Amino acid sequence: MIELLIGIDDTDNKDTRGTGFRSRQMAEIFINEGYDVLDVIRHQLYVHKDIPYTSHNSSACLHIFADNVQKVIKLSRDFLNEIAADGSDVGLCVATIDKVNHEIEEWGKNAKKIILTQKDARELAAKNNIFLEGLTGTHGGIIGALAAIGLRKWGSDGRCIWLKGKEIRDIKGVLQIKELKKIVKLDEIQTLSGKAVNDQDFINVNEWFRPIIRNDKIITFVESNKNKKNEWEIVSKDYIKSVSN
Question: Distances in Å between the alpha carbon of 31 and those of 26, 124, 140?
């Protein structure tokens, strides 16, 4: 099996489901093909009046193991062409993880703070033998698609919108932490001060269960449930956004 990163961007318009939703659909397609999907990460990019975007200017990256790169490209391309919204500028990027070098990581970091160009995106992808293709509209999504794989390889940006094991939006209620780690791939559960939480403790999983990526680890931040001993709660949606945008 080959370890791959798949970046997508700008699949939607204001009347359709967003790129995050589409990336989760792609994850299911790959699972049905027998591939191992590890995670799907949302990456926030630069918001500026001169950058066209639908709502938040975010892209997504899928991290998978597959046996055939060309088949992955075809499956991705076919799906994105099928669901691309009117007026979208879909971009698709597929790379073996070893090709996503420091230069690509820096592209991703820069996409969070400055305006980048399609020309430079294409040249950088070609230089590193990375598949990058615009599918609809102006093809502007190639900038964010390339950024997504760079940021995922960097390993310290974004938040999980899908994790190996189970659709995270379906996980709710009070669970023992060791059991939660069996349900989905989680590396650590930490307090806001960075202290690891005991696997024997319990966690109340609310509707905004969105682990983040730090130092290439999937981490969920929690705070103490003041009403129950040895029970934790996932931190607020606002806090998760503040540390993952």
Answer: 9, 30, 28
Q: Would you say 159 and 190 are in contact if contact means Cβ atoms under 8 Å apart?
A: no
Where in the chain are the domains?
2-159, 172-236
Is the overall model pTM greater than 0.85, yes or no?
A: yes
155 CB-near residues (< 8 Å, 6+ apart)? 213, 214, 215, 216, 217
Q: With H, G, I as helix, E, B as strand and everything else as coil, classify residue 100.
A: coil
pLDDT at 206: 83
Task: Name the 3-class secondary structure at 118.
Answer: helix
The confidence score (pLDDT) of residue 51 equals 62
Q: Is 122 exposed, middle or buried (0-12, 13-18, 19+ CB in 10 A)?
A: middle
Name the residue type at position 103: E
Q: Work out the pLDDT band at 211, boundaries 50, 70, 90.
A: very high
Q: Which CATH class is domain 2-159?
A: alpha beta
Q: Which residue has the tokens 């070609």?
A: 126
DSSP label of 23? H
Q: Which residue has the higher pLDDT, 185 or 50?
A: 185
| CA distances from residue 219 to 63, 84, 158, 189, 191 in whole angstroms, order as listed | 16, 32, 11, 6, 10
b/e string for 59-80 if b means 16 or more Cβ within 10 A? Answer: bbbbbbebeeeeebbebbbebb
Q: How many angstroms separate the CA atoms of 80 and 115, rounded?
A: 25
